[in-house]
Amino acid sequence: MGSLDDLKSIWERLKVLYVESTCGTWVKELNTMVKLIGGRKPGENPEEWMRKVITTARSIKDNLGDLNMDIFMAYILTVNLGDDLTATTTETYRRSEWPTVDSIRTSISEEYQSKLNAGKTKPTAAARPDNEDPKLNLTTSRKRRGPRLSSPHKKHDSDNDGENGRKGWHICPICGNKHPIREEGDCLLARPETAPAGWREKNKDKIEAFKKKSQ
């Protein structure tokens, strides 16, 4: 039995050998390893920290085999994916073998799109995929450049003149277009009552389309 000199250790090894492990077992073992990253404090004797790293790594190898890059990528893609995406993680952890990285990526995208269509999640401006990403089926109509808008969509400074200025504009989290944003909710499509009458008349089709989309 080698180093297995107590019943608890023997039983744990028997479970590993004869009970089919799952990807969730890998996650548990790798979580233990990841928690050791940065665990040594400045000035602290590194011996104990190194012992934990080496012992944990050897335990993973003994229990599960060698770690390869596909397993590591699959682990990174699924661990701490977020509270809004749980189906992919649950299904992956239950499997006896890791699915391919491409299949995990597809499952995450499909789950996200499904919940987005069902209204159960709302992407932030930073998290929203590109409007023309065909894999996530989020293609929207291409923006048309119209006349410059009056306040509040137009900032009266030289930095926002021309194409250089537009590049610095943020994507509006409400309408998905780029325009100057001075405060939350500063979007003429969402609040047409704040826009000049002339602008409302020229963009009434866009306003109606935005209302229907929002409903």
Word description of this protein:
- There is one protein chain.
- With about 220 residues, the protein is an all-alpha fold.
- It folds into two domains: about 5-120, no CATH class; about 160-215, no CATH class.
- It is about 45% helix and about 0% strand.
- It has nine helices and no strands.
- Helix 2 (about 25-35) packs antiparallel against helix 3 (about 45-65).
- The protein starts with 6 loop residues before the first helix and ends with a helix.
Structure described in brief:
The chain has 9 helices and no strands. It has helices at residues 7-18, 23-34, 47-64, 69-78, 87-94, 101-117, 162-167, 197-202, 204-214.
List keywords for this structure.
9 helices, single chain, mainly alpha, about 220 residues, 2 domains
